[in-house]
Design goal:
134 residues, alpha+beta, Multidrug-efflux Transporter Regulator, Chain: A, Domain 2, 2,3-Dihydroxybiphenyl 1,2-Dioxygenase, domain 1, 4 helices, DNA-binding transcription factor activity, DNA binding, Regulatory protein MerR, Glyoxalase_6
């Protein structure tokens, strides 16, 4: 295997994702290794994929069910601003169809580890509770 590639064990130690989880992410298409040896089946990951794995690990720690959804939706007051932050954090771009009401980072079926993220504007909550009239 190429010296620049990390084995599944080395990648697992670097990302704190178990080899079992990495295999599952590979099978689901969420985090596909850069190289899979046809003869041995060994997986090889690049250092660039460490960032994607870090995002996946962080989302899993927040109990986001990555394998059960085709993407992640966020309710927020400013979709453009939040999408810009996550686009920079995941080294992706905000989709051109985004507007004031929603923003999309990534696309369904896009190659890469991080699932698409949809940011949708929601009204800000009331600052005070309703009082009953007397």
């Amino acid at each position: 295997m190429d010296e620049d590639l990390l084995t599944i064990g080395a990648f697992s130690r670097a990302t704190l994702l178990s080899p079992k989880a990495l295999r599952r992410y590979h099978e689901s298409g969420l985090l596909v290794p850069a190289v899979v040896d046809a003869r041995t089946g060994y997986r090889g990951y690049t250092r660039v994929q460490l960032g994607d794995a870090g995002v996946i690990r962080a989302l899993r720690e927040l109990d986001v069910p990555l394998l059960q959804t085709g993407g992640i939706a966020f309710d927020c007051a400013d979709p453009t601003k939040l999408a810009g932050f996550w686009a920079a954090a995941t080294e992706r771009e905000v989709d051109g169809s985004s507007n004031d009401e929603f923003a999309l980072v990534g696309r369904p079926g896009e190659a890469g580890a991080v699932p698409p993220m949809l940011f949708v504007r929601v009204p800000e909550p009331k600052s005070a509770k309703n009082r009953p009239r007397e």
